[in-house]
Amino acid sequence: MADQLNVTVMSMPMGNNIAGYYKYIKRRKYVFINSNIKDDVYRKVILAHELGHSIMHRTQNCTFMNGHTLLLTSKIEKQANIFAAYFLITNSLLDDYKDFTREQFSDCTGYPEELIKLRLNE
Questions:
Q1: How far is CA 106 from the centre of its chain?
Q2: Is the Cβ–Cβ distance between 70 and 51 less than 8 Å?
Q3: What is the Cα–Cα distance from 54 to 97, expressed in whole angstroms?
Q4: Interhelix angle for 40-56 vs 75-88, to 10°?
Q5: DSSP readout, 81-110?
C-alpha cells in the first residue's frame, strides 16, 4: 500500500521512545520505523498508523510514540489509530475470531487490545 500511495518507508534506529513517524518533505511522503523494534506485528501497526497520517494528514509531521500512541486522544492520532485498526483487522479476521474475547484475539494475532477495541467500535 505504501508504494501505491507513493510513500517511502525507511527503517532506522530511533532510541526507545519513538516507534516511528510520518514526515512530509518537499512534497514527498516518508514513513520512518524504528529499526530497534523487532516485533513484526507491532511494525505493521506502526506502518498502518503512519500510512493513515499520510492519507488524512498529508502535510503534517506526526510521531508514533512507543507504547503510548494507541492511548492518546488527540484527534489526528485517534484518526490514524482508527485507520490502522480498519486496515489491519479485516472483516474476515473478525469472523475468524468472533467467539474470542478481546484479550484472546490480541494473544492470537499480536494486535494490541486498544487497536482491537477501536475496530470493534467499543
A1: 15
A2: no
A3: 30
A4: 120
A5: HHHHHHHHS-HHHHHHTTTS-HHHHHHHH-
pLDDT digits (tens, 9 = 90+) for 97-115: 999 999 999 999 999 999 9
Tell me the pTM.
Answer: 0.87
Phi, psi torsion values for 103, nearest 5 degrees: -65, -45
Torsional class of 76: left (φ above 0), alpha (ψ -120 to 50), beta (otherwise): alpha
Amino acid at 64: F
* Nearest-angstrom CA–CA distance, 72 and 107: 22
Strand order in the sheet with 18-25: 7-12, 28-34, 18-25, 62-65
User: What whole-number distance in Å separates Cα of residue 98 and Cα of residue 90?
Assistant: 12
Instruction: Dig out the grid coordinates for 106 from the structure.
Output: 490480541
What H or E segment, with its residue span, contains residue 73? none
Cβ(114)–Cβ(73) below 8 Å: no
- pLDDT tens for residues 18-58? 899 999 999 999 999 999 999 999 999 999 999 999 999 87
